Amino acid sequence: MRFSRPRPRPDSISPTAHYTGYVWARNGLGGGELATTRGGWYYRALQPAMVLSRAFGGPVPEDFLLARHGVIDHLLSAAIEAGHVDGVLELASGMSPRGHEFARRHGSAISYVETDLPDMAARKRDALDKLGSLGPNHRVEALDVLRGHGGDDLLALADEFTSGKGLAVISEGLLNYLPTEELRTLWARVLAVLRRFGAGLYLSDLHVAEDNRGPVDALGATLLGRFVGTGLHFHFTIPEEVRKALTSTGFDPVELYLPSEFADLVLDANRPSADRVRVISAGAART
Predict the structure, then answer these.
(1) What separation, in Å, do the N-terminal and C-terminal C-alpha atoms of the chain show?
(2) Are 105 and 76 in contact (CB under 8 A)?
(3) For the residues 102-128, what does the mean pLDDT come to?
(4) Pfam families under this entry (predicted)?
(5) With 80 as the cut, is the pLDDT of residue 61 above it?
(6) Mean pLDDT score across all residues of the chain
(7) For the segment 166-205, what is each residue's pLDDT rounded down to a tens digit?
(8) What is the spatial distance between Cα 42 and Cα 53, in angstroms, rounded to a whole number?
(9) What is the pTM of this model?
(10) Is 53's pLDDT higher than 90?
(11) CB–CB of 34/101 below 8 Å?
């Protein structure tokens, strides 16, 4: 299922980056420097629609944005604390507070590299600089993993981590904006990176059609696709199709979680719209 429009200028900062950054900041995640004025405009403009959507049992993005973020944080924390991961490479990080929070929490015990398109990376770098977050173990790099030599650039960034240790690659809030071919290309590139390390972990999120079937969901997907300007893609109908696709790419083991499975561990995992998204945790062994 696909709701599509032409792509915007590659270096433009997407409305969702502003919106999600504001959602995280207003819920106490990260610092206020990661919330933009435009994000506040978008949030307030969408609030009447969100009230109606909740009233009619439709999706409320704030719910699943917070739920997926919290579950990914939980899974990453568990991997770090277990000694499996000491490097994190986050793709298309936008205004996410994760890098700031994990760098503050773990200090020199981890290396955290955030990436995004040049305009977004520059804005994020400025915000983190104001927070005093950047340093030898936390930085932001410009990267377009889906264009040109993105695969080579991704491998070059990965080479800067210690290959004998474990690496986690994160792509939050990205996959449903990609056509299926680009999604599979991204997964293959991520796998190639992770297989260079002693332990590899891929964390992401994905909306599947089965969880978003109602008429209000369809309308919301159409409107969100127009809001973003890239379209929304529901590549898979059921979770098992996602699992098979990741396994056929070479990931093992592969787990798909509903946020509500972490309701006792993650603050926002039981919000009403939380289970409209799945969280992916996929392993990769060194070859």
Answers:
(1) 35
(2) no
(3) 95
(4) LCM
(5) yes
(6) 88
(7) 999 999 999 998 999 999 999 999 999 999 998 999 999 9
(8) 16
(9) 0.91
(10) no
(11) no
The CA distances from residue 223 to 3, 62, 80, 162, in Å, are 9, 15, 38, 43
Q: Where are the domains of the chain?
A: 2-284
Question: How many other CB atoms are found less than 10 A from the CB of residue 282?
Answer: 26
Three-state SS string across the chain, please? CEECCCCCCCCCCCHHHHHHHHHHHHCCCCCHHHCCHHHHHHHHHHHHHHHHHHHCCCCCHHHHHHHHHHHHHHHHHHHHHCCCCCEEEEECCCCCCHHHHHHHHHHHHCEEEEEECHHHHHHHHHHHHHHCCCECCEEEEECCCCCCCHHHHHHHHHCCCCCCCEEEEEECCCHHHCCHHHHHHHHHHHHHHHCCCCEEEEEEEECCHHHCCCHHHHHHHHHHHHHHCCCEECCCCCHHHHHHHHHHHCCCCEEEECHHHHCCCCCCCCCCCHHHCEEEEEEECCC
pLDDT at 287 over 80: no
The structure tokens listed for 37 are 């004025």
| CA–CA separation, 66 and 234 (whole Å) | 20
Per-residue confidence (pLDDT) for residue 12, from 0 to 100: 56
Residue 22 has pLDDT above 80, yes or no: yes
Residue 92's pLDDT is what? 95
Judge whether 196 and 287 are in contact, CB under 8 Å.
no
Average pLDDT (90-112) is 96
